[in-house]
Amino acid sequence: MKKSSVLILILVGCILAFPIIFYGIPFQSDEGVPHARLYIHFSEQFWNGELYPRWLVGMNNGLGSPVLFFVGFVYQGYFYSKWKKALRQL
Prior knowledge:
single chain; 90 residues; mainly alpha; 4 helices; 60% helix
């Protein structure tokens, strides 16, 4: 692929993602609230020292949730956003 093709692809992706970047994730969607809960519990465990939380302890009224055992690759964005924030604070 040419360098210009990659730049055009990145530009188009940024333009299409602009509403989410500017306004945030729409919580009125079917998946907005569950993703927010996962993100909150993931963040809590990450900042308490667990570098890659897979069992989310605070989910399901304290019983936990194995969601990151089975579909962990889907939630890599949570992991990368926390590391990015940690590196910015250095």
